[in-house]
Amino acid sequence: METLQYLLTGFGVALTPTNLMVAAIGAFIGTIVGMLPGLGPINGVAILMPLAFALKLPPETALILLAAVYMGCEYGGRISSILLNVPGDAGAIMTALDGYPMAKKGMGGVALSISAWASFMGSLIATIGIVLFAPLLARWALAFGPAEYFALMCFAFACITGLMGDAPMKAALAAIIGLSLSTIGLDSNSGVYRFTGDNLHLSDGIQFIVVVIGVFSISEILLMLEQHHKSEGIIKETGRALFNLKELALTWWGTVRSAVLGFIVGVLPGAGATIASAMAYSMEKRMAGPDGHFGQGDVRGVAAPEAANNASAAGSFVPMLTLGVPGSGTTAVMVGALSLYNITPGPALFSQNPTLVWGLIASLFVANVMLLCINIPMVGVFTRVLRVPNWALVPGILAVSTVGVFSVHATTFDLMLMSTFGVAGYLLRKQGVPMAPLILGFVLGDMMEQNLRRALSITNGELGILFQSPISKGLWIIAAAMIVVPPLMRMRAGHKVHAVI
Amino acid sequence: MSDRILGAVCVVVGAGMAWAAHGYAAPISYEPVGPRAFPLLMAGLMAGAGAWLVVRPGPHGFGLARDHLKPISFAVVAVFIYAALYEWLGFTLATTVMALPVGMAFGGSWKQSLAAGAGLGLVLFLLFDKLLDVVLPTGVLSFILGGR
């Protein structure tokens, strides 16, 4: 009951004219960013975050903007998947498998509208999930002390490295680099300057924006130079614009199942939209059995991954809001955005700043309705954006990125540092080092060190406290499992493959 | 091979961090864990991860095709020059200068790239500086655009 009251307060925040407008702008920009191959939610949120701050938006409005962009990206990715056979963002890879064949058969309009509907359902179900579970988790997490927090963050890193698949050591390395970068600057407890090299610009630490824009925007531009899209051009003939009731009925339960699955995957730190949509797709394919024609243009193959990737995006807000530990790169950037406002997300946020939390949750509902409304009739507008040539688009992205970086401190030093991070990020990404753990490390670094020091202050340096309480014991055990189990499973799967051969 | 280089760089960086962090000590300490422990821990982990990559490199190669080398180095230089000229030339002119090589690296002709840069520089300046109140440098054009 209490929750319902808070939710109503939240709608009061989300429905103010400013926030409504901001949500609409965010939804629109997000759809475009998600649609453009090469730019995903993390780039969009990273580029817009400093702008939101520079525009002096209040924190809840800034967060609403970023959340709308995040959701919009998950919507937008499907458009280029379906019409170009080039996924617009990583979460839309699976959508291309059936979406593009459908478009080739002249059913592009059906694919676009059913996937917009599935996206809507995914976000809706997951947002209801947030309303139901986030307050419970926050209340439980209030009992966390510094030792539990330290264990929780180690668990988050374990998830992100264990689930990163092919190169866990590189994901771990990325997290270590991020954590190391966060130590640069003045140590607030002791007044010692660390790794500043007597550079005045570094005494305050490296600006979060500089790192994020560098590794996600600048390096992305360099990577884009190498991508050759072997697309056969945009499919113009999209046929019937709306799905019919038969198609709706056929996809209904698959959409709901995929949304629930996506939400659960999204809540887990580390696993994101990509994993969620792949799992949903293969689940639906298996459930359809022989009467499915997955891969050749099955509507269910379009609906399932879209429901899942939207649900996982919404789900990833849960750990960020309740624990203050972001579960994905994109929510890590949002935590960084909040830190610009001196707000530290965590369980206390629900009681101390209910307007922010519930305003955000309510605006997820609002933005979702807006996205459905703009995504079905306005698909034509978006496809026209896809025809903007890169020689005009990329300088624009670069220019907007620098506006964001410059707006914080207005120094050339920050711009130079941004460029350096861009090149370093490019080299690391070329080498297979993922950037999401790096950002997670950079965001969590200070909190992790502070909690470790606080925990050890309690026992005067005795390490045992880190493993003492049942909660931290549990977290350490799952963290260890996260690192040990996936390689073992891969080994077993490998043996099976060998046995078959 | 490139994994080994990355690993070796990490070992060196880790060693450098450890060397730099070694002297970090609080003048007056109230807590058992000072400012040195966490950086040293990270230095150790960094070197450890690097050593792992040296000993067990993945199959992942760097894989940069030769015909990409030129546009990429162009773009890298352009980004740094953009940063350097930003305050001095001002946002509008610096963006025009940056868009020429970057646009051309992405397949535009020099006329197209220059026009795109000038247009972006002016439109974005008006949008952010004049309309949205995000202050941008005007540099040498300050006599027309106002500001510093």
Would you mind describing this structure in some detail?
The complex is a heterodimer of chains A (501) and B (148). Chain A has 501 residues and is an all-alpha fold. In chain A, 74% of the residues lie in helices and 1% in strands. Chain A has 20 helices and 2 strands. In chain A, α3 (41-54) crosses α8 (208-224). The longest helix of chain A has 49 residues, at 93-141. By secondary structure, chain B is mostly helical. Chain B has 2 domains: 2-55; 66-145, no CATH class. Chain B is built from 6 helices and no strands. At the A-B interface, α7, α8, α17, α18 and α19 of A face α1, α2, α3, α4 and α5 of B.
Q: Can you give me a brief rundown of this structure?
A:
Chain A is 74% helix and 1% strand. Chain A is an all-alpha fold.
User: Overall 3D geometry of chain B?
Assistant: flat
Overall 3D shape of chain A: globular
Q: What proportion strand of chain A? A: under 5%
Termini gap of chain A:
58 Å
Mean pLDDT of chain A: 86
SSE-based structural type of chain B = mainly alpha
Highlighted features:
heterodimer, A: 501 residues, mainly alpha, two-stranded antiparallel sheet, 2 strands, 1% strand, globular, disordered C terminus, B: 148 residues, 2 domains, 6 helices, 0% strand
SSE map:
The complex is a heterodimer of chains A (501) and B (148).
Chain A: H1 2-14, H2 17-35, H3 41-54, H4 59-84, H5 93-141, H6 146-162, H7 168-182, E1 185-186, E2 193-194, H8 208-224, H9 245-267, H10 273-288, H11 299-315, H12 317-323, H13 329-340, H14 347-352, H15 354-375, H16 379-385, H17 390-409, H18 412-430, H19 436-458, H20 470-500
Antiparallel strand pairs in A: 1-2
Chain B: H1 2-21, H2 37-55, H3 66-89, H4 91-105, H5 110-131, H6 142-145
